[in-house]
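User: Structure please.
Assistant: Input sequence and predicted structure:
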Amino acid sequence: MVFASIVFLSVFLPVVFLVHLVVRPIRVRNLWLIAASLLFYSYGEPVYVLLMLVSSVFNWGVALAIGAPHAKPLKSTKLSDDSNSTPGEPGTPRNPETRRKILLTLAVVLNLGMLATFKYAAMIADTFGLLLHTDFNLPVLALPIGISFYTFQALSYVIDVSRGKCAPNRNYCDVLLYIAFFPQLIAGPIVRYPDIAQALSNRHATSEDIALGLRRFVVGLSKKVIIADTLAVVADTIYNAPSTEIDAGAAWLAALAFMLQIYFDFSGYSDMAIGMARMFGFHYRENFIYPYVSQSIREFWRRWHRSLSSWFKEYLYIPLGGNRLGRPRAVVNKIVVFLLCGLWHGAAWTFVVWGLAHGFFLLLEEYLPIQRLPRILRHVYVLLVVLLTFVLFRADTFGQAVLMWGRMFGAPGAKLPGSLALSLLDPFTVCVLVGALIAMTPVTRLVEKVAPALVSETSAETTPRPPVVFRPSAVTFVGALVLLGFDLLLLASGGYHPFIYFRF
C-alpha cells in the first residue's frame, strides 16, 4: 500500500485515525497503530512482514542486553536488571564494556548483513561475475520495500542505547511501533528513537495538531501526485526513448524534469509522513528545506534528506574519526560516507558514482574559493552539479548517462530535433513545470514578511530555516480541500503514479 492511492486515502487512513482518536488508553492506541502498520506493510508483501518482525525482536533484545547504565531513564522505559548490578554478583559479566562492544558489533553485523543480503547480493554477485568471467546464478530475492529505512532506524536505536543516549525500552510493542509506524515505514524520514520516546507512552494530539498535520499531508500528497508524477512522465518517456530520438533539448528537459521530480517526490513523502505523524501526536523533524536554493554542495546536504545526512554523520562519519584525526583522514572519512550514501540509495554502481561525485565537489569546495563567487554564480554552480549528477541517479547504466551528457553538450542527437521535447510539453505540463520551479524556492517567506500574523511562531527556530508554518485559517483549509479534491481526481483517472522507493 502507498500513500498516493484511493484505498489508502479513502479507507485506511480515515479508519486508522478515527479509531486512534476514539481510543483513550495509550497502550491500546499503540497496539492499534501496530496492527494498522503491519496491515499497511503486508498489503503488498505479506511475507516480508516476518522479516521486519524478526529484525525488531532482535534489535529490541540486543538493546536490553546492552543496557544503558549512564542514560537517564525515560518515563516509558526501565533499565535492565544488569545495569543495577555490581561486579561479582551472579549473572553479572566480569567485563560489561566488553559485552557491550560484542553485542553492538553483533547488531551492526547482522543488521547490515540482512540489508546486504536482500539489497546488494545481486549487485555483488554480478560485479564479481564480470571480474571473474563467470555466472554465480544466485536466486533472485525481491527487495523488501523500506528495508533501508527501518534497518537504519533499528540500528540507530541499538547504537543510542549503547552510547547511553537513551534507556532501553523493556516494552517490545513500543520498539515495534517506533520501527514499523506506517507514516515513515516505506519512505522515511529516518526517525531517531530519543525524539519520539516520550510520545510512545504519553502523547496528545490537539485540534491544532490534527488540523496542521492534515494540511501538511495534503501539501505533500499534492507535491507527489500533481508535480512529481506529471514530471515523471516527461523524464521516463525521454529516458526510455531510442537514442535516435533524443536531442539536446530533450536531454536537458529530461534532466530538469527528473531533478524536480525526485525532489517533489522525496519531499512530498516526507511532508505526508510528518503530517500524519502529527495527526497521531508525534512530532518529526523537517527532512527537506529548499535544497535547490543552496550556494554550496555542503549546504545542499544540510537541506537535502536531513535525516539521512545526520544519520551518516552521527553513526558513521564521527565514529570514523570525523575531522579530529587530521585532514587526510577527514578526506578519507568523507569519501567513505558519500560512497555508502550513494550505495544506500540503490544497488547499482551508478548510485555509488553519484555519491562519490557529490563527495568530490564537497571536498573541492574546501580548496577552491567557491564562497567568494557572486551569490547568483554559487546558485548556478550548485544547480548544475545537482542536475548533472542526477543523470547518474536516473540512468539505468553508465552508457545511458554518458549518452544523456553527450546530447546535453552537443553530441549528435535526434533525426528530428526538438520533436520529442515539444510533444511532451503540453499546456498542463508546462504549468506544472513552471509551478515546480517556483515552489522549489522559499516563496512562502514573502507571506511571512507581508503578513506575519498568518505565520506560526514556531516556524523558524533552526538553521537552515524550515518551511513557513501558517496558522490555521479558513483560507488555507479551503485551499487544502481543493488540492485534495484535485489529487483524488488525478488518482481516480488512472494516470501514471510511479513509486520510486522500490529501489530503496
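Residues 41 and 49 are 7 Å apart (CA to CA).
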